[in-house]
Amino acid sequence: MPYMSAVPALRRAAGTGRRYADRRPVSSRTVDALTALSCFGLMLLDVPGLADADNSLGRVSATLVLGAGAATLLLRRRLPWVPYLVALVFLGWLHELTLVQFALYSLGRFRGRTAGVVATLGYIALAYALFSTPLWPAHKGDSLSDFLSLVVPIGVLASGVGIAAHRQDLLRELDARRAEAAALQAVQQERTSVARDVHDLVGRELTVLAVRAEVLAVRARRAEQGDDFEELAETARRAHRMLNEIIVRRADERTATPGFEGLPALAEEGERMGSPVELSIDDEARRVSPLRQTAVYRVVQECLTNAAKHAPGQKVSVRIGVEGPRLRIEVRNPLAEEGPTPREPVSSGTGTLSMRERVESMGGTLTAGARDGSYRVRALLPAGL
Fold first, then answer.
1. What was the pLDDT predicted at 255?
2. Contact 278, 331 (CB under 8 A)
3. How far apart are CA 155 and CA 105, in angstroms?
4. Nearest of 323, 339, 229 to residue 285 by alpha carbon
5. Could you tell me which residues are beta bridge partners of residue 332?
6. N or C, where is the chain less crowded by C-beta within 10 Å?
7. Nearby residues of 158 by Cβ (< 8 Å), 6 or more positions away
8. What is the CA radius of gyration of the chain?
9. Rounded to an integer, what distance in angstroms lies between the CA atom of residue 101 and that of residue 40?
10. Do residues 316 and 304 lie in contact, with contact meaning Cβ atoms separated by under 8 Å?
11. Distance CA 54, CA 137 (A)
């Protein structure tokens, strides 16, 4: 019964340790220093035996030699062969097996499978050569079976664990690169979407400008300003062609992003997903440019998606208004029992990055987080009114 009651406590302690490690990551230098100290501490247990052996070392000198050998583990990331070679010297001179375990692990961890296998074979070959001499100590194995059961597993296990850790490091690096690539792709897609919206909205205005200038040029053909209006019309047409060249031919998509007119459909979609939506848009906010309206649409779309994901069934409040020179978008929903994940305040996917990219590309800011029992997303954009 005491054992069963201790299991939850151990699990809680382990979870607390993981959370602490996540919040306070330990540097690689600190890990290497702790590794060297751990190795030195284990080797200190052999000091009495080394002092009594016929190797011309006393307790103090043996301690200093073992400390110098353990210190080579500080190089285990950049030069892992250095502690390995020192460990082989210790093996032949002092018959010390502790340092070689750390060295083989380091080689497997930081140089991979090939280096780990080669180093392990070299260690076993040297150990067997020493075992074949009369100088091999009896407590390290006085028969071949004892030798194989003691010396060989030490090297194989240490190297194997290091190789496995190296593989995990590669997998974590691959996952990190995939996540980074996905984030960059999301940002690029959002930039393409912004560029497409700029073309659809600004291009229309350039077309209107060109047509209007041509009409004025016809009316003022006999006046002194006739040539000026014709030049203005040609400039507008040339700007429109450049816009097509830069944006349309480089964009991969052609679907325009809705503005405020698409928000009621988003609210209905949220209600179908089980999250009622209360939508409020100030009359003054409806005067903002179509480009800003598309940014608002993207923010609300992402927020409603995440509200349905993290707080299903909870009512979502969407408020869009104007605060002085800023356009304000605020989305709020009550927290679910488990609450939204604190690491990705708006979304655990790349939607957060694309939404933030769009807001910041227009000179705005976006904040999100839990507050007073609800989860709030607040975006501020230049209103341009």
1. 52
2. no
3. 8
4. 323
5. 317, 376
6. N
7. 100, 101, 102, 104, 105, 108
8. 35
9. 12
10. yes
11. 11
Give φ, ψ of 68 to 5 degrees. Answer: -65, -40
Instruction: Collapse the DSSP code of 241 into the 3-class scheme (helix H, G, I; strand E, B; otherwise coil) and give the result.
Output: helix
How many beta carbons lie within 10 A of that of residue 311, not counting itself?
22
318: which strand partners?
279, 331
Of 76, 137, 134, 129, nearest to 107 by C-alpha is: 76
Place of tokens 């930039």: 191
Task: Look at residue 348 in the predicted model and tell me its pLDDT.
Answer: 41
Nearest CA-CA partner of 63 in 73, 49, 74, 77: 49
Nearest to 268 by CA among 300, 310, 229, 299: 300
Position 72 scores a pLDDT of 93
| Residue 3, pLDDT score | 42
Q: Which residues contact 228 (CB under 8 A, 6 or more apart)?
A: none
CA 307/CA 336 separation, integer angstroms = 9
Measured CA to CA in angstroms, residue 347 lies from 223, 270, 368 at distances of 61, 16, 10
Q: Please list, in sequence order, all residues whose beta carbon lies within 8 angstroms of the beta carbon of residue 319, skipping any fewer than 6 positions away.
A: 280, 328, 329, 330, 331, 332
Between the alpha carbon of residue 134 and those of residues 129, 143, 380, the distances in Å are: 11, 12, 81
Confirm if 96 and 43 have CB atoms less than 8 A apart.
yes
311: which 2 tokens? 């707080």
Q: What is the predicted pLDDT for the residue at 109?
A: 92
- Separation between Cα atoms, residue 308 and residue 314, nearest integer Å: 8
Q: How many residues does the chain have?
A: 385
pLDDT along the chain (385 residues), means of 10: 50 58 71 91 84 72 90 92 92 86 92 91 87 68 70 87 89 83 72 66 66 67 64 69 55 60 86 84 85 84 81 86 89 72 43 72 83 86 79
Cβ pair 371, 339 in contact under 8 A: no
How high is the pLDDT of residue 84? 93
Q: What is the DSSP string of 308-376?
A: HHHSTT--EEEEEEEETTEEEEEEEEE--SS---SSSSS-SSTHHHHHHHHHHHTT-EEEEEEETTEEE
Residue 253: strand, helix, or coil: coil
Q: Tokens standing for 45? A: 């247990």
